[in-house]
Amino acid sequence: MTDERKAMIASLINIEGVGKDELAELISVPPTRDNGDYTLPCFRFAKALRKSPAAIASELAASIKLPAGDVIRVEAVNGYLNFFTDRKLGAIRTIEKICAEKFSYGDSDEGKGKTVCIDYSSVNIAKPFHIGHLYTTVLGGSLYKIYSKLGYKSVGINHLGDWGTQFGKLIVAFKKWCNKEELDRRGMEVLTEIYVRYHTEAEIHPEMDDEARAYFKKIEDGDEEATELFNLFKEITLREVRKIYERLHITFDSYNGESFYNDKMQPVLDELEEKGLLVESDGAKVVELEKYGMPPCLLVKKDGATLYATRDLAAAYYRKQVYDFYKCLYVVAYQQNLHFRQVFKVLELLGKDWAKDMVHVAFGMVSLEDGAMSTRKGKVVLLKDVLDRAVEKAYDIISNKNPDLENKRVTAEKVGVGAVVFSTLYNNRIKDIVFSYDKVLNFDGETAPYVQYTNARCLSLMEKVGGYDAAKADFSGIDNPESEAVAARLGGFGEVLRECIRKYEPCYLARYLVDLCKDFNRFYLAHRIAGEKEGIKNARTMLTAAVHCVIEEGLRLLGIDAPPKM
Q: Is 320 among the residues known to form the active site?
């Protein structure tokens, strides 16, 4: 609804040299409704029109002829052009639209014909799935869902860390201290054990490293035994991580990792050579980037080995060729800022006009209150353990609040896992997060349980009154500030989703859901539903149903379940 209103308002405004689509993009919702329902800042027109923003706003306000419709007043205030709408009519239209469209409300075809590749999670084979993987996994998963809702073709890519001498080390460790039966039974646990043991033993027996390098060379050469073990380690790892992905509602369309690009790097290196960009430096091969304020991009080491940058260049070529992406996102921690700046610059120097469509979606770090993520202390916090602990705490809280609730374990899983995901996505992604179980499981704060509980309240109210009959709704029942505030918030759902992809920030959706719940709970405290006249009850139940649809769909887009009862 917000976008339709913006387009309609833009059609009323005439500024020479400025198109209606551009005007619609500039129109926003003011922070407080005292300043209208929509506003157009006039500051950016001042230079072209050679007038002050205040004069431009005043002249526009005087020139606008209001049609018979939603917009009932326009005012110029300090360089802003403020539009006031018929809020009751707007509320009715929004509620009716959501009740008709239900969970498809907010769907858009704006991304039709456009593919967005999203590289996220990117776990390492034969290494545990720890809390450090949480941010990239849920951030990428949410962007995947939001892009899809807005009509884009999302391609989720799990760029597996499945190459390197560590696999030679694992083969040595496996042959010395393990067997296939134990590996199949204990999975990642035993892989981690023998990998740690290898490093301890190799300090005493350094010749083991020579053996490991020899086994990795066998993998590179396609040796049958070495390749079979390499694929077995990969299969075991994916079997374990898919259990976590299932809990987080994460899916991928491609698991092409580093090893996939072994035969795809040379053409990129050849092209760099042909264009005179690849130069020798102390026996290695690099692309000089000093003039762009960056150190050289190392692509081939002295011993002929390739690096992450080499594989990322090959992956970029492959993704453009296969998917012809509109955008290619890399959801990777901010520590890799320089790496991606270098890779993108090399693509630009190669003359790839699509280099501008590559985006590093950087994010901060996640740690626990007790500092348990300190790698210097040799501690690794498994993501499974974090989720399990949150679920157990959620179960205790639910058992205390609602001891007679059926399926408490199922509900606790949805609440506990949802709390972890929501707390990760609620803040701006570039911020570091200190994770607190007590804070994220608070039913009264800006948390997933608060949003989930509000949704469950909506469902309970609807069940109590027996649903609604839209044909018999008396909308005088929502002719009040609390209802209008809820409807106005609901009307902004689509715009919030667009803001999420414009800035690659699902936090806008998480915060929106909290604000919607606050608005609804104010309405709930101020106005009865059950016991009212039939028409008023229908209208208020429709408002409740609309809130439920948007909350549940919003949570889904964040990768969070909405339990029907709590």
A: no
